[in-house]
Inverse folding.
């Protein structure tokens, strides 16, 4: 039982135990416990201690006996059989059970287990033929790709290596059909790694290998793969043609996974061309779910969310993202889950929830093995928010993002990166560089989607470029370019995008609008944009221009906002996130993001450390606590300490008679009382202290 690492059937233990009464003694002693027909160790530490004490040769023999016993009992648990086969050194049994265990784990959505079983089989595959090794390598490549293990794994083989090995083995075996399929697989992996040119090259070679072989499922998959690549390169007409070829072959051969994939790609291409796309996108996941193709269902969740975010339908996007994250979490689809969380962070940025966007982005970089494609959006987000806030570190992020976008060579990626750089230069008052970046974005955009085309046109005008806007432009951008600032502001406000509304107000150039923009930027913490707005107001000759950040944020020693300070106080009191949400009438997810922002600002690793920071002097650390300390210090400096001096002067006064002397002593006593009340309540005024000083001065003059 110690070498099994899991509970054992009672009849199996009885069959293997040379002294069955010993089992009863172990149960009576409490070392083992019975759980129905299963026996297990009461404590895992006891099992580990016994397992470590067994010599290696004895353990190997025990695994051999267990494997034989399980075979005799017709055990259907391939994973258990593969474990004992490997531990006993039985390579033939490993190759029999591990691949089957991997396939079963993949069907159940346990992709870590599936990858581990493929790796186990490959450790014993040196003596088998190239075709069998190629199939095992393909299984590992697929599972590693789903887990996000592209080319970053240090302690395990990554997807690219496994896919490259499978391709080489199929070529060695002389199987052109499987070679073409392996090239399509490699293309998808290379795209996830941010190597767009290499991905397209592999997809084209795949088609050239497969087309001479006639209509096949593999050719359908190659068409679908290249269709996706062309769509990402903004060649929407070509992508649609290839996607329809893939659909035709997929329907002919009943390949519902390929059919779902191709419908998905056609839907995205249609959305980028302002064509009908929703019917296709709804059909894609329905087909995937009916065929139990979880990867394709997850891709539909991702692309539906991406379209909604890119079209600024943010309320819908928030719902799609939440549903997609739940689905991917339930089925162990880590790569798709990461992509959806990246879209969630972008949604937070667009809706003005910058602290939540920053916290989630930092969390993804810290805890997730992101592909360059997913990391690109995070770098742009960090860079542009830092630039808007006037914080350091913006250009490190934007320069790295530009390098990734150039490697990926996809126009939408280039446009997003160049526009972010244009905004950062513009906020820094470097209009020449801002104009250059905006024109590079225009050069990459071509006739891209209306929303991106509109953003490019706005930044061309904002930076003073003489390039004309062309192509279809989306609503708020169209209003702004047409000079209707009011409609643009209302449109952005309806969409829930305060920063874009503030930028539209800033573009208007009117004092009232500029003041509204300044308030918006101050609320967001966009200090760089606020500084530009103040300069615009000064050029208009405006007076009484507000300066600096909001008082509560400025006063807090850690820069926490009011809501973050409230959450920190409840953390210090030991409340859970659920309880904090109930107390503050906000969702648990919102509390999660506030907690992440608090940890980042405090520079602490967990909520317990944050509680310790807040607990010792929470009143003094809060903005209200700081003001309270200042009030009480003021009471001491201006009331209590001078009162002693006033009373002493009154007692020693030799001029003005007893009336002046008594009056001075009374005023000094009142100052002392005022100061003591101020220390107790924090409500000490300075009026009486000032009056007393004037009386003393008058007495001195006499």
């Amino acid at each position: 039982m110690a070498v099994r690492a899991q509970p054992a059937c009672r009849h199996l233990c009885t069959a293997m135990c040379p002294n069955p009464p010993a089992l009863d003694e172990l149960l009576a002693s409490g070392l083992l416990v019975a759980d129905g027909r299963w026996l297990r160790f009461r404590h895992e530490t006891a099992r580990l201690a016994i397992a470590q004490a067994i010599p290696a040769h004895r353990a190997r023999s025990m695994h051999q006996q267990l494997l034989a016993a399980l075979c005799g009992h017709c055990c259907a648990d391939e994973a258990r059989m593969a474990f004992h086969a490997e531990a006993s050194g039985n390579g033939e049994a490993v190759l029999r059970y591990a691949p089957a265990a991997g396939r079963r784990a993949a069907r159940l959505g346990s992709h870590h287990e599936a990858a581990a079983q493929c790796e186990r089989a490959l450790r014993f595959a040196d003596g088998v033929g190239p075709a069998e090794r190629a199939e095992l390598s393909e299984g590992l490549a697929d599972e590693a790709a789903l887990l996000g293990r592209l080319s970053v794994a240090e302690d395990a083989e990554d997807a690219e290596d496994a896919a490259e090995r499978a391709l080489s083995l199929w070529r060695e075996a002389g199987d052109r059909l499987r070679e073409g399929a392996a090239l399509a697989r490699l293309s998808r992996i290379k795209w996830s790694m941010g190597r767009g040119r290499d991905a397209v090259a592999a997809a084209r070679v795949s088609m050239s290998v497969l087309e001479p072989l006639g209509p096949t499922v593999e050719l359908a998959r190659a068409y679908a793969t290249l269709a996706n690549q062309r769509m990402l390169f903004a060649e929407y007409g070509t992508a649609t043609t290839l996607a329809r070829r893939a659909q035709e072959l997929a329907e002919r051969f009943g390949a519902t996974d390929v059919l779902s994939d191709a419908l998905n790609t056609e839907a995205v291409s249609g959305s980028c061309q302002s064509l009908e796309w929703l019917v296709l996108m709804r059909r894609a996941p329905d087909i995937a779910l009916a065929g139990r193709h979880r990867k394709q269902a997850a891709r539909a969740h991702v692309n539906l969310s991406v379209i909604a975010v890119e079209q600024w339908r943010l309320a819908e996007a928030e719902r799609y993202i939440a549903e997609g994250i739940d689905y991917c979490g339930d089925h162990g689809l880590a790569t798709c889950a990461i992509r959806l969380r990246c879209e969630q962070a972008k949604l937070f940025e667009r809706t003005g929830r910058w602290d939540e966007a920053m916290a989630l982005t930092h969390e993804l970089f810290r805890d997730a093995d992101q592909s360059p494609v997913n990391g690109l959006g995070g770098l742009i987000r960090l860079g542009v928010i830092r630039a808007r806030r006037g914080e350091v570190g913006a250009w490190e992020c934007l320069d790295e993002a530009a390098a990734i976008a150039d490697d990926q060579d996809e126009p939408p990626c280039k446009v997003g990166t160049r526009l972010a750089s244009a905004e950062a230069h513009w906020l820094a008052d470097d209009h020449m560089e801002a104009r250059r970046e905006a024109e590079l974005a225009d050069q990459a955009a071509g006739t891209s989607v209306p929303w991106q085309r509109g953003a490019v046109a706005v930044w061309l005008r904002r930076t003073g470029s003489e390039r004309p806007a062309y192509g279809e432009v989306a609503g708020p951008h169209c209003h702004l370019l047409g000079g209707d600032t009011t409609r643009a502001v209302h449109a952005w406000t309806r969409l829930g995008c305060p920063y874009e509304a503030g930028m539209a107000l800033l573009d208007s150039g009117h004092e009232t609008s500029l003041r509204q923009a300044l308030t918006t930027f101050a609320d967001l913490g966009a200090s760089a944009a606020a500084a530009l707005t103040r300069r615009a107001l000064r050029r208009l000759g405006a007076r009484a221009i507000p300066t600096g950040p909001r008082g509560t944020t400025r006063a807090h020693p850690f820069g926490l906002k009011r809501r973050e300070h409230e959450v920190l106080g409840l953390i210090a009191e030991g409340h859970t996130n659920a309880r904090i949400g109930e107390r503050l009438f906000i969702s648990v997810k919102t509390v999660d993001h506030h907690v992440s922002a608090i940890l980042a600002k405090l520079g602490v690793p967990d909520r317990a450390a944050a509680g310790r920071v807040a607990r010792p002097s929470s009143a003094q650390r809060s903005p209200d606590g700081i003001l309270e300390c200042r009030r009480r210090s003021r009471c001491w400096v201006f009331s209590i300490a001078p009162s002693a001096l006033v009373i002493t002067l009154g007692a020693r006064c030799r001029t003005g008679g007893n009336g002046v002397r008594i009056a001075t002593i009374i005023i000094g006593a009142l100052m002392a009382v005022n100061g003591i009340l101020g220390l107790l309540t924090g409500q000490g005024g300075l009026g009486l202290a000032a009056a007393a000083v004037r009386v003393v001065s008058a007495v001195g003059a006499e």
Observations:
- The beta strands are 8-9, 32-35, 38-41.
